[in-house]
Amino acid sequence: MNKNRFLSKLLLLSFLITTNLHAQQWVSLFNGKNLTGWQLAAGTAKYAVQDGMIVGETVAGSPNSFLRTEKEYDNFVLELDAKLPDSTSNSGIQLRSHVNTAGRVYGYQYELDPSSRKWTGGLYDEARRDWLYPLSLNPEAQKAYLPGQFNHIKIECIGHEIKTWINGEPAAYVVDTMDAKGFIALQVHSIGNNTAMSGEKVYFKNIRIQTGNVQPTPFHKPVYVVNNIPNYLCNAEKKWGWNLLFNGINSDGWRGAYKDHFPKTDWQIKDGMITVLSSQGKEGGNGGDVVTLGQYSAFDLSFEFKLTPGANSGVKYFVTLTEHNEGSAIGLEYQVLDDALHPDAKLGRDGDRTLASLYDLIPAQKQARFVHPIGSWNTGRIVVYPNNHVEHYLNGIKVLEYDRGSPAFRALVAISKFKIWKNFGEARQGHILLQDHGNEVSYRSIKIKPLQ
């Protein structure tokens, strides 16, 4: 290589390095003096600059108010400090957001929640889909918020992945395709017409951003990932030990409960869904239940399901197939049900046959706002820890917990329909089962992580 060519390559390399470093430099979004680069987007709350901070102040009669950036951003890392002086107020930071034709701000929101719920760092979908990542999915992060103090916030939006931190603690991890670009905004939450709450303040400072060729920061420990891309695992999920039980294409990994093959009728795999078809509500259906080829003991299981009106199904676990009973195979059951239209919801004791309940044993404690309508996708989750503690979740909210094999558990079994089965629900391991109850129900994004 001659000297001129060597110098040319050296200059090119220097230019590329300089360009890359420049793209990753921090840029202040707030100059500490005025609101240059920001504009009001909705609501009538007050925003002002005081002592180098942006201060938002509540006013009665206003909807949620937002101060937004004039620019829009796609891939970025955002850091800032925020303080809510008391536990009665609420705020948030909008990401990749927009304004609709009615003048309402919508899009991803980093939650600032000083209440006893402790969901600061969770991800909300303002004016659209409600909660994407309630921080009940990450109990460790719920301890990180500092009441009445400035808290350091970090948000990373790169491609389809959104990650959040609170005071250095990994909080939410969402994979979603809804928005690739939009503005950033600071929220003053509505207080309705409650004049007693007028004048409550929220403080923001040290607002800075990296754009361009930003690189993802790995979480230093695993967290549950809300992945809204059907039948897909992100790299972090793979690294943390998750596996798809249904590939979205065929029946690999599944067979009939009492068969050596997948049912030839009454089950359909199409459009990324595994669907049990209607057979007039017959328990055990015509096709019958399907089970995983593998068996599991301690695990974290997540799945999406979509009910048709009046439908009944279930996801069972610790299914041994040793009972050879008629109808559906025996196992602990996460109930999948249309509570409004199916009669099972009114049977049993205290609602223990309703959606997300441990069927015929423990009712799910759920709020209506966290149940998605019939015909929409809901996310179920079952966690069985190595010590036999079990949790059921519905759309990110824990709805029940119990201890397999405990005296309290055995007492419930003794007054249930399962009392005839010796040691019901206490097998060391078992199959995962999708129930054919004769109604059309679809499943997808079935994933599992063995726990040690």
Please tell me the overall pLDDT. Answer: 94
Number of domains: 2
Distance between the termini: 57 Å
Second CATH tier, the architecture of the largest domain: Sandwich
Q: Note poorly predicted spans.
A: 9-23
Shape: elongated
CATH topology of the largest domain: Jelly Rolls
CATH domain class of the largest domain? Mainly Beta
Walk me through this protein's architecture:
- With 452 residues, this protein is mainly beta.
- The protein folds into 2 domains: 23-210, Exo-inulinase, domain 1 (Jelly Rolls), CATH 2.60.120.560; 230-450, Sandwich (Jelly Rolls), CATH 2.60.120.
- Helices cover 8% and strands 37% of the residues.
- The chain is built from 3 helices and 29 strands.
- It has helices at 3-23, 235-239, 407-414, and strands spanning 27-28, 38-42, 46-50, 53-57, 65-69, 76-83, 91-99, 105-112, 123-126, 130-133, 151-158, 161-166, 169-175, 183-188, 201-210, 226-227, 243-244, 254-256, 267-270, 273-276, 290-292, 299-307, 312-319, 332-337, 378-384, 389-394, 397-403, 431-434, 441-450.
- Strands 1, 3, 4, 6, 11, 12, 13, 15 and 16 form a 9-stranded mixed sheet that branches.
- Strand 26 and strand 27 form a beta hairpin.
- Residues 9-23 have low confidence and may be disordered.
